[in-house]
Amino acid sequence: MTETAKKELVIPQLIVGLGNPEPKYDQTRHNIGFAAIDALSRGWKIPLSENRKFQGDYGEGIAPSGGKLRLLKPMTYMNRSGQSMQAVTSWYKLAPESVLVIYDDMDLPIGKTRLRLSGSAGGHNGMKSAIAHLGNDQFPRLRIGIGKPKNVSAEDKDTVSHVLGKFNAAETQLMEQVLTFVIECVELSIQQGVEKAMNRCNSQTITIP
Prior knowledge:
Layout: H1 2-8, E1 14-17, H2 32-44, E2 49-51, E3 56-62, E4 68-74, H3 81-92, E5 99-105, E6 113-116, H4 125-134, E7 141-145, H5 157-163, H6 169-192, H7 194-201
Parallel strand pairs: 1-4, 1-5, 5-7
Antiparallel strand pairs: 2-3, 3-4, 6-7
Helix pairs in contact: 2-6, 3-4, 6-7
């Protein structure tokens, strides 16, 4: 019984952060997925390096739980992120549900994170590509809130400048704490399964004291 329950746990083996290459996109809201992978890379001492076969910056090492873990930042640009992800999952024969994708979400306020076992792309181009290349939407994802500009409709060009803009000083300070919390959420997902981690990661709002 315990063995069966263990098998049903969704344990990430590949953690992917979404973003755009090129220095001009560094520190932008849309690249918070990249920042999360960088934080995990530093925290777990898993160095990342360019991997042309996987079309991304890639690293592998041992997770805090002791299992093998892979980190990936696709360098294909956001709307083709799935190509890089598919290259890794095909090479290592990983099931879609073993892939945890971290990305920005404008519908969540800054300081909020949302962990889910599956779901639609919600208009996010990186996730549309991920779903297309992994073949379904049955894989876990961790959304990091970046907030939205006030009094702006979804079609407004200000939305684009917001997403591709950089965090201000106060937001940057807050996002550092959010990324620390993201590491905690990912570690919990690996140790106890994504479903268990959801209780912790979806219930907390990070604020500046």
